[in-house]
Amino acid sequence: MALFDLPLDELRDYRSASVEPEGFDTFWAKTLQEAREHELGARFEPVETHLKTVKVYDVTFAGFGGHPVKGWLTLPAWANSPLPAVVEFVGYGGGRGLPHTHLLWASAGFAHFVMDTRGQGSAWGGGETPDPVGSGPAYPGYMTRGVDAPENYYYRRVFTDGVRAVEAARSHPLVDAARTAAVGASQGGGITIAVGGLVPDLAAIAPDVPFLCDFPRAATLTDRNPYREIGNFLKTHRGRTDEVLRTLSYFDGVHFAARGRAPALFSVALEDQTCPPSTVFAAFNAWATEDKTIEVYDFNDHEGGGTYQEAAKLSWLPAHLAAG
Q1: Do residues 73 and 111 make contact, with C-beta atoms less than 8 angstroms apart?
Q2: What does the pLDDT look like over 51-77, one tens digit per residue?
């Protein structure tokens, strides 16, 4: 697929037409307050992995509604004092998988916390966190679950879990809370942006080819899932477009980006039909700090920079997570 979105010079100036809903901050403050009424209760159980260079802990903490959410905490085997931490969120349909698939960040000397995504993990990766909340009629997938109202929407629970995952990671004695970053690709990148807007004291964020940004454009620009789930829902539920877009506006990465304070490293792929480049630039251009950069991969689809982007993050993150 050749380039299908705006030219790069226009992308660098592109701004989303997504309208921030009234009461956005109040909605999220109330959501997080309700979540924090439940004891975080983070538990870290050692896991035997037969790996010699890392220590791994099976984590359980209370997310949205006090529901148990799983994760892995991986530490360098030599760790005996607090380390800078990388909290990672995973892509659409995936779960936390097995511990030996998460060695990059601990190998670089960081504490690494990866969050399982509730209700997902059966398309790849393997997940162990159920979503005990039901919803009204929805198109298969996760994009329209509870889309009738912001209070019911699936990603309200996921984004809240993401904030609580940062809190759980920071609660471990070998994690330096002041030097904590959030990272993720695709859905994980969208969660990263949301958490970056909701947790004001992160040291850095690094979302790659992020999903869940600029819903009004994304839902009409690409035929690929997951965004296409929205159109397929509305194809059946005629006349509900305004209602659905209003709900989605409370979860649009563009509005979280406007509240972002941490240094940020984004990445985008110009042939990405899953998360079109204009939707990524919408969030990047809205990110509220000057300390931000974006890696552009001209001829890549949704795989983005792949290992090249991992190398870019390995180069960029240490300076932002250095001892203060």
Answers
A1: yes
A2: 999 999 999 999 999 999 999 999 999
pTM assigned to the model: 0.98
CA angle 53, 307, 85 (to 5 degrees): 50
CA–CA distance, 10 with 89 (Å, rounded to integer): 30
Residue 322's CB is within 10 A of a number of other CB atoms, namely 10
Q: Where are the alpha helices (DSSP H) in the chain?
A: 8-11, 24-36, 104-107, 154-170, 187-198, 215-221, 228-236, 241-249, 253-257, 277-286, 307-320
Q: What SS3 state is found at 294?
A: strand
The helix (H) or strand (E) run that includes residue 204 is: strand 204-208
Any idea which residues carry the catalytic annotation?
Answer: 186, 272, 302
C-beta pairs of 293-299 under 8 Å, 24+ apart in sequence: 293/264, 293/265, 293/266, 294/265, 294/266, 294/267, 294/268, 295/265, 295/266, 295/267, 295/268, 296/8, 296/267, 296/268, 296/270, 297/267, 297/268, 297/269, 297/270, 298/270, 298/271, 299/270, 299/271
Each residue of 234-263: pLDDT tens digit? 999 999 999 999 999 999 999 999 999 999
Burial of 121 (0-12, 13-18, 19+ CB in 10 A): buried
**Degrees to nearest 5, angle at CA 276 with 242 and 266:** 110
**pLDDT tens per residue across span 23-51:** 999 999 999 999 999 999 999 999 999 99
